[in-house]
């Protein structure tokens, strides 16, 4: 089965879970959690059951528009399809948390880990913006540097996803919040982002 049917099924299942839980859900429920993992804001039943799936669905639709109407989006269709699938699975996982009454930090950590893992698996296939290739400064050396940097970024994102999945599965609750999420997550993302930016500059050939 290709990614798109799975994406549709994932979002449909997430919305269906919200509908199934509607009658048994209180009028107000937690919709935001603080650094200690405890709820710090409550919202309506509609917000609690459907806000996150709706936001993730909107993000998925935006990637579809990008793929349809952008030359760069069309060139990177595989990555955008995988991004949509990861958003659908994240929506489904967060809704299953409500169904199973699982704790939020662990579910969110697992969801982000799965998202990074899936996107990292295909990020190495990223194609450069067509406008770059049409620029006079674009050379075979620059093309090779682009693909090297893309593959290394993919490996790092995949590794980050794997670390988050392992942390979500095996880290004790006392360590999970706040040391894994959000402190550890933010620190790792910053390190990976700086590492990638420095590497891109190092691989960039001299003009």
Automatic annotation (TrEMBL):
Keywords for this protein: Membrane, Transmembrane, Transmembrane helix
InterPro entries referenced in this protein's UniProt entry, alphabetically: DUF1648
Gene Ontology BP terms: response to toxic substance
Domain DUF1648: 11-56
Transmembrane segments: 42-61, 153-170, 176-198
Keyword Transmembrane helix listed: yes
Superkingdom as given in the UniProt entry: Bacteria
Pfam families: DUF1648
Membrane keyword on record: yes
Protein name per UniProt: DUF1648 domain-containing protein
Lineage: Bacteria, Thermotogati, Deinococcota, Deinococci, Deinococcales
């Amino acid at each position: 089965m290709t990614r798109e049917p799975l994406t549709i099924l994932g979002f449909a299942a997430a919305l269906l879970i919200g509908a199934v839980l509607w009658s048994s859900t209180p009028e107000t429920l937690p919709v935001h959690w603080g650094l200690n993992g405890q709820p710090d804001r409550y919202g309506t039943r509609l917000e609690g059951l459907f806000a996150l799936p709706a936001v993730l669905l909107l993000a998925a639709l935006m990637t579809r528009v990008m793929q349809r109407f952008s030359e760069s989006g069309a060139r990177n269709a595989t990555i955008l399809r995988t991004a949509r699938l990861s958003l659908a699975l994240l929506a489904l996982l967060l809704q299953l948390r409500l169904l199973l009454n699982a704790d939020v930090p662990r579910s969110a950590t697992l969801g982000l880990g799965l998202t990074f893992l899936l996107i990292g698996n295909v990020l190495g296939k990223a194609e450069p913006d067509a406008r770059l290739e049409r620029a006079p400064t674009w050379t075979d050396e620059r093309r090779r540097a682009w693909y090297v940097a893309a593959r290394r970024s993919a490996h790092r994102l995949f590794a980050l996803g794997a670390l988050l999945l392992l942390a979500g599965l095996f880290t004790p609750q006392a360590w999970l919040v706040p040391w894994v999420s959000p402190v550890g997550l933010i620190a790792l993302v910053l390190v990976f982002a700086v590492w990638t930016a420095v590497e891109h500059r190092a691989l960039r050939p001299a003009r």
